[in-house]
């Protein structure tokens, strides 16, 4: 009996480890060149955050997953990160250099294998892109202004490499339609947030099983939002209270052209446009054209002050939810200023366009005011 008990004690750690291994996953990392020992790990749909410490870039982490899900590891005080995909019962390892987070390789799991395979196949391109990015950032921090030609050349080289990687990612997606990795490639290499609907053919290509992944829904939503706010689409209705306390909607501007602009008091690029919009307002009859600016200022007084200083007297509304604005989200506002031109039939005539482009379209559609 004593012998059996001693065998049990010897086997107990293995039994415990085996049980835990089925309900958890283990990650071992070795990232060379880390300056800060803190590692931040974000996991789960609730974005749970764990903080661990690395020693000479080495660390071990045990976690739990609900399903096959992304795990984001931040290091260097949150300035660098890598995403891998984990599930219970698996062991993972990641190796690489802190200066090249995009080239950190992950072993364990089919998704990580395919991602690592893509990185290995395109190692030199990704490394060159990282080097160019770091060089451009260093020049920007110096901000001497004497290397503008060099900066332009670096930017051109980066765009060229990004386009090559995008093409390679597109080939990868079509070759791996049944893997969640296809969605990751769409997100990381193909998606242009300003023209997100361009990813639709690639989303259509993945299998029905892959479409059940939450990442597919996220990408599909971005694609549709971009598609629904392009020129030629019916403008989306909205309802908001203006600065005169009147409730306005798209119907308020029926049978008129509407310049719909999004701005806020902190937007430096918005300020030159106010005088141009005043000029447009003075050029076209009020029965033909209206202007509505929706401010994303959380402090309403900030916008009111700016409006007074810039003689803005067209219809204005202040959405104090700021960037959480439902209307801004509806119209896919990603940066300021953001201008739409909606025609008399409620169709988007210009999407995210400059004031000069608005003027060009209006010249074709509205007769000028007759001078007395």
Please explain how this structure is put together.
This protein has 372 residues and is α+β, with helices and mostly antiparallel strands. The protein folds into three domains: 16-107, Immunoglobulin-like (Sandwich), CATH 2.60.40.1120; 126-227, no CATH class; 239-365, Glutaredoxin (3-Layer(aba) Sandwich), CATH 3.40.30. Helix content is 41%, strand content 22%. It is built from eleven helices and 15 strands. The strands form four sheets. Strands 13-12-11-14-15 form a five-stranded mixed beta sheet, covered by helices on one side. Strand 7 (91-97) and strand 8 form a beta hairpin. The longest helix has 28 residues, at 148-175. It is elongated. Residues 1-19 have low confidence and may be disordered.
